[in-house]
Amino acid sequence: MNCVRVKAYAKINLTLFVCGAADGYHKLDSLVASVGLYDTVTVRKRRDDRVTVKMLGAEIQGENNAVKAAELFIKEFATCGADITVIKRIPMGAGLGGSSADAAGVLNALARLYRIKDSERLAKLADATGSDTRYMLGGGWARLFGRGDTVKRVSGRLRARLLLLVPDEKVSTPQCFAAFDKNGVVGGDSDEAERAVNRGDVYALAASLHNALMPAAVSLSGGISVCADKLKELDSLAVNMTGSGSGVYALFASRRLCVRAKRSYRGTARAYILKTR
């Protein structure tokens, strides 16, 4: 086997509570789920130990997590290198974890390519590339604690329907947390949202949606509040933001209502129909 191709799925935050800070990081409690939006990661064996990465649909800017993940993998497992191609579909800077998804996709693909089955060593490599990359290795429903590197799997299989709007204006995650530190509300937990998912109760989940960073993100990007207002005009159960923005989504009771909402949406933001996995 000389080539492996995998799908690297985006995630969405159904809840995000900031519970304090430790060691220079904010401590979070966030209920997350994979959604059906993904980047495609292809890895091909090389005879030397070099790594090349080609991003289709986006430019490589600064330190790239896909490159970092590959270099860490090769050093850890003493394998040959790889030529990596990433087809980008996950919007960048939208709070969907696209960079972490690519890093996880590279680790998963290289593990298959080189027949590595040591999941704990892979998870440690994931931690070195990003706070939520460990979660992204497996995806699904989960609660993330601490920096996002402590993962509690959630057994529910709720298939939630979402309409996501992504404005052109991005939000810097460090700036968002800095704005939160000035006026944000610390505390809360995702217990009720987790119970709703375990019961498969989309209405209870809607009542539990929360993102403590949303006021801070809105203060940095007018596009977020515009998208949120547009979504509130539609027949949704609730509206929320994912990550530190800029993606804003509405939760719907059915696929039919979600599709109808997308058809009736009038605005400049990119619109995506998503389903949790």
What tags apply to this protein structure?
277 residues; alpha+beta; eight-stranded mixed β-sheet; four-stranded antiparallel β-sheet; 10 helices; globular
Structure description:
This protein is of the alpha+beta class and 277 residues long. It contains 10 helices and 12 strands. Strands 1, 2, 3, 4, 5, 6, 7 and 9 form an 8-stranded mixed sheet that branches. Strands 10-11-8-12 form a 4-stranded antiparallel sheet, sandwiched between helices. Helix 1 packs antiparallel against helix 3. The mean pLDDT is 95.
Short description:
The protein has 277 residues and is an alpha+beta fold. The chain contains 10 helices and 12 strands.
Main sheet characteristics: 8 strands, mixed
Order of helices and strands: EEEEHEHHHEEEHHHEHHEEHE
What are the low-pLDDT stretches, counting only 5+ consecutive residues below 50? Answer: none
Beta-strand segment tally: 12
Tally of helical runs = 10
- Pairing-aware structural class of the strands and helices? alpha+beta
Estimate the mean pLDDT confidence.
Answer: 95
Content of β-strand: 25-35%
- The N- and C-terminal alpha carbons lie at a distance of 29 Å
Strand and helix layout:
Layout: E1 3-13, E2 15-22, E3 25-45, E4 51-56, H1 65-77, E5 82-87, H2 98-113, H3 119-129, H4 133-138, E6 142-146, E7 150-153, E8 161-166, H5 173-183, H6 191-199, H7 202-208, E9 210-211, H8 214-220, H9 222-232, E10 238-241, E11 248-252, H10 255-264, E12 270-275
Parallel strand pairs: 2-9, 4-5
Antiparallel strand pairs: 1-3, 2-3, 3-5, 3-6, 6-7, 8-11, 8-12, 10-11
Helix pairs in contact: 1-2, 1-3, 2-3, 5-8, 6-7, 8-9
